[in-house]
Amino acid sequence: MKIYDKKKFISSLFWMVLLIVILISLITKGFNLKKAILLVISFPIYLSDLRKSFSKVALAKEKIEEMDERNQLVDQLSKAVSFTVIRFFVMGLQFLFLILFGLYKNETLLLIVVVLGLIVFVTFISELISGIYYERKL
Q: C-alpha angle 59/43/13, rounded to 5°?
């Protein structure tokens, strides 16, 4: 058998090792519901990755699917929206911890506000730099 997609093959090896470790753990330490659920979820992923790594047709389908413009647009829009949502969530947390600092005067809360502020600053700077980069590139 020829391996057509090495990334999927390596991924399937990872899932196989994970399955073996979980199975050995279940046998040696007794039944654990979380591990059993993880085993049931991991097995189809392992089989899917293994099948895709050996199938030329599946590789071609996946490449066509990745290159589809609509899928790329949906992916870009979902990433942009999630980035914005996370930024506003962090800003909300920053505001909350600022209020808590005003109430309790705990310096740890102020440190949290500063760290969250740095995260928001980095998100704005990364958006600005990527905007400038893609303006020049396109």
A: 60
pLDDT digit string (tens) for 64-88? 877 788 878 888 899 999 999 999 9
Query: Quick count: other Cβ atoms within 10 Å of Cβ 5?
Result: 19
For residue 91, give every residue at least 6 positions away whose Cβ sits within 8 Å of its Cβ, in sequence order, or none. 116, 120
CB-CB neighbours of 58 under 10 Å: 16
Taking the domains of the chain in order of start, what are their residue ranges? 6-66, 69-137
Q: What is the three-class DSSP state of 67?
A: helix
pTM of the shown model: 0.55
**Looking at the chain, how many residues does it have?**
138
Q: Are 35 and 22 spatial neighbours (Cβ–Cβ below 8 Å)? A: yes
- 10 — pLDDT class (breaks 50, 70, 90): very high
CA distance 39 to 102: 48
